[in-house]
Amino acid sequence: MSSKQPALSLLETLDLVLLVFETGKAFLLTKLYLYIGTESRFKRCSAIATVLTVATAPFRGASGNRDFSKHVAYGTSRYRNARASARQLQFRARGITQLGGGYVKPATTHFEFLWYLHKTSGPDLALCLLPYSLAPGGTIPCPTPSGILQYLTINAGKKPEKVILLGDSAGGNLILGIFSHLLHPLPSIERLQLSGPLRGAALISPLGDFSTVSPTYARNRYKDLVDALVLEKWAACFMGIAEADEYNQPFRASSGWWKDLRNVVRDVLITAGADEVCVG
């Protein structure tokens, strides 16, 4: 999988310069209006979006996030994600061109979360991070990342009943894709056979369906980090010309598709926040 930064065209570079100029004053604005949160959380937010969001926040009513700071931070994040292309988001990531949100946005807080798990779970927990290429450089059809299971259960000698898979957003989608491949092997991908079911899987806000027709996309559009416009743009980058199926959009699968899931994994936890657009 490629880990090179995307090469921007002259037009993309000039547009990125404009975006950076727009974000340059955001930190001062957020320090002026907000008294909580970390500097890194706001320093790249759009100054324009910050001013508009702060100005309208007192009138947000039930349609906005209950927490004032989150309402402002999420509003500026939605602007930035909608304003920048996938390549521009990745270009600013200082070389991180794998992992991340929606198959597009480079990993940031993911590493902090894993470090927190490492510190709080004790010495018996070992963490293994799965790299995958971001779109549009990496699109489907592509081999499912079940190679991590092969490495853990064969090369590293770990028993399946000792392995727990954890995925957030696109990571949850990948895990469900792995389960689909284990249940219904794709001829184009080397088949993986486990000696027993995995201990478990935790899916945090998994992107199981790229459709944005759920009422929650309208109800929570001003409460979440992303909205329908952003997710549709990122999904198009990832899907390319591929058709939707049970492997890349597993929530579209019928109940019969998963009838033998207990042979693959013992327990599955799926969780999402009440204010997220994809919770429906």
* Strand order, sheet with most strands: 1-2-3
Question: Number of DSSP helices?
Answer: 11
- β-strand amount: 5-15%
Mean of residue pLDDT?
Answer: 79
Instruction: Give the distance, in angstroms, between the N- and C-terminal Cα atoms.
Output: 33 Å
Low-confidence stretches: 24-45
Envelope shape: globular
Cα radius of gyration in angstroms: 20 Å
Approximate helicity band: 25-40%
> How does the helix and strand content classify structurally?
mainly alpha
Pattern of helices and strands:
HHHHHHHHEHEHHE
Q: Count of DSSP E strands? A: 3
Biggest pleated-sheet summary:
3 strands, parallel
Structural features, described:
- This protein is mainly alpha-helical and 280 residues long.
- The chain contains 11 helices and 3 strands; from the N terminus they run ααααααααβαβααβ.
- It has helices spanning 10-23, 26-33, 39-42, 47-56, 68-83, 86-91, 109-120, 147-155, 170-183, 215-219, 228-239, and strands spanning 164-168, 198-204, 265-271.
- It has a 3-stranded parallel beta sheet with strand order 1-2-3, with helices on one face.
- The longest helix has 16 residues, at 68-83.
- The two termini are 33 Å apart.
Outline:
With 280 residues, the chain is mostly helical.
Which helices and strands, and how do they pair?
Blueprint: H1 10-23, H2 26-33, H3 39-42, H4 47-56, H5 68-83, H6 86-91, H7 109-120, H8 147-155, E1 164-168, H9 170-183, E2 198-204, H10 215-219, H11 228-239, E3 265-271
Parallel strand pairs: 1-2, 2-3
Helix pairs in contact: 2-4, 4-5
